[in-house]
Amino acid sequence: MLWQKDERLDQWMSVKEKSYAIWGDEKFLESRQGRSILSFHHLDGEKLHYFHAPEPFFCRVFQPEGKGDVLILENKDTWYSIGRAVKGGDTGQIAGLAVGLLVYGEGNKITREQEGLSAFLEEMGYGKTGQKVWYAGDIDRAGVGIFYDAKRQNPALSIEPCLPLYYGMVRRARLSGQKPEMSEDRRAIGWNHDFLSYFTGSNRLLVRQVLEENRRIPQEILNYQDYMHMCKGQSC
Fold first, then answer.
1. pLDDT tens for each residue of 209-224
2. CA 192, CA 114: separation in Å to the nearest integer?
3. Would the pTM count as exceeding 0.85?
4. 59-61 and 97-104 strand pairing
5. CA 87 to chain centre
C-alpha cells in the first residue's frame, strides 16, 4: 500500500478498520508485531490516518459544547435517578454542581483501558484541561479502589470524589443506627488510606470503620427522592 500509494492510506479510519484494510486482520495493527512494524518504519496514526476508538460509556448530556462538570457514577440505578432528578429540576445542578455530562462508570469499566476515560471525554467534548471531573461510588474497598484506579489510569484528568454524595451516604448510614453491612467481595484486601482525608470528625470515623472491617455503604442508600432535594439545594 505504501509503494503503490493506495488511496486508502490517506483516508481516515478507526484503528481496526485501517488494520483490516492493510492486513486483512482487524487486530494486527494493535498487536505486538504490528506495533513493532510501525516503530521500525517510523509510522503512527497521523501518517497512516487512523484513530483509536475509546471504550464507550452510557452518558447523558445536560449542557452541550463541553460546558458544566462531569459526574461519574459507579452504579446504574444511581445514574438513572440522578439523571432523572437533574432533568426534572430547574437549575441543572445537584448539590451545587452544574452537571454537563453524567457518565455511568459501570463499576470497574472506567479503569480497564489506559487513558480510556480521558479519550472518551475528549470525544464527547469534555476533555478540556481543567475540566472538573467528579466521581462517586459505593463506600467499600472495591469502590475506593475503582476511584484511585481511575485516577491512575487517567492522569490527565483531575478526578475528585463528589463529596456531597459521599457525605449524604455517610449521614444516612449514621442515622440508620445500624452497622453497615459486611461486604461479600473479598478481592480487595487493602485500600488507600488517603480516602479518609476527604472526611472529618465522626464521618471519617465511620468511613474508617467501614473500610477496615470490610463493610460497605452502597450508593443505593440514597434514592431519587434524596436527589430531587439535592437538586433544589436542600440536604437529603
1. 999 999 999 999 999 9
2. 20
3. no
4. antiparallel
5. 20
